[in-house]
Amino acid sequence: MLPMLPPSDTRPPLSPRPALPIAALALALALAGCAGGPQDNLSLVPARLDQQTRQDGLFTQPVKWSRERPGCQGECPKLTVDSLAFPGHPRLTELVDHALAAMTWVDAQNAAPYDTLAGFEAYYWKTAESRDEVQLTARTRYRNERLTVVELDAAQYRTGMAHGMTGSQLLNWDNAAEKALTIDNLLAPGARPAFDAALRAEHARWLDQHADAIDNRDTFDRMWPFAPSDNVGLTDLGVLVKYQPYEIAPYAWGQPELLIPYEHLRGVLRPQFLPPRT
């Protein structure tokens, strides 16, 4: 879960902001003639637990700081970053930086005037009002010697807004090819309907597990119907799908996570993204 903003008597709770796609950022960083993907018979997901495989994964260093606007006195805007760098892997480090910066921009009609966290910070100090606050977070959700899965989170409160804004994005990184993997890279050709069907079945099981919290299932299903999602991450147990608040459930349910076990995705995922049979 994304860390919440400090409590305040006058600030309303954060409400959702749709996750921002990062495929375009990945393509922008990719070099022409980049090495191709792995062979189909080489599994990128070993049949071991995350606690074991993360020891073989990319080394990370924290990028962590919290600042108020320079020279400000009294009530001041605040910017907090709790991110990661990947020493020896500048393209992944840059992608995380670019993606977090992009997640702060909410104007769909115009391009952001910055594309890095440093650029966003400079812009933010020029435009932020006294009670504005932004939190940007990156953490690894799964890693092994071939794959790195990073979760990116952004939370913003801007003075005068009725609600804050939040967003979450999962990034799957191929360590050898040095490129981001979109859901189209993960799925076998023509397998999107089968993936959505597997996700729908997991969604139904998830609702059954929370039956005690639902007063009327028919009303709940009308208000919070199933929705497909591209926000996916590979793990040692299956494909994780993460939703935004309000996307498939009330705000109080937070950011729901559904896990589709790999045994339900054979023939759906490309072979290299399935663990070997044991």
CATH fold-type name of the largest domain? Heat Shock Protein 90
The helicity comes to 10-25%
Distance between the termini: 33 Å
- Quick one: CATH superfamily of the largest domain? Fervidobacterium nodosum Rt17-B1 like
What is the makeup of the main sheet?
Answer: 7 strands, mixed
Rg over C-alpha atoms, rounded to the nearest angstrom = 20 Å
Strand content: 15-25%
What's this, in brief?
23% of the residues lie in helices and 24% in strands. With 278 residues, it is an alpha+beta fold.
Topology summary:
Layout: E1 14-16, H1 23-29, H2 50-53, E2 61-68, E3 78-85, H3 90-102, H4 117-127, E4 133-143, E5 147-157, E6 164-174, E7 179-181, H5 183-186, H6 192-209, H7 217-223, E8 232-234, E9 238-242, E10 257-261
Parallel strand pairs: 1-6, 3-4
Antiparallel strand pairs: 2-3, 4-5, 5-6, 6-7, 8-9, 9-10
InterPro entries: DUF3298, PdaC/RsiV-like_sf
Domain DUF3298: 184-263
Protein name: DUF3298 domain-containing protein
Characterise this structure:
- With 278 residues, this protein is of the alpha+beta class.
- The chain has 2 domains: 14-185, 2-Layer Sandwich (Heat Shock Protein 90); 192-273, Actin, Chain A, domain 4, CATH 3.90.640.
- It has helices at 23-29, 50-53, 90-102, 117-127, 183-186, 192-209, 217-223; strands at 14-16, 61-68, 78-85, 133-143, 147-157, 164-174, 179-181, 232-234, 238-242, 257-261.
- The longest helix has 18 residues, at 192-209.
- The radius of gyration is 20 Å and the shape is globular.
- The two termini are 33 Å apart.
- The model is unreliable at 1-41 (pLDDT under 50).
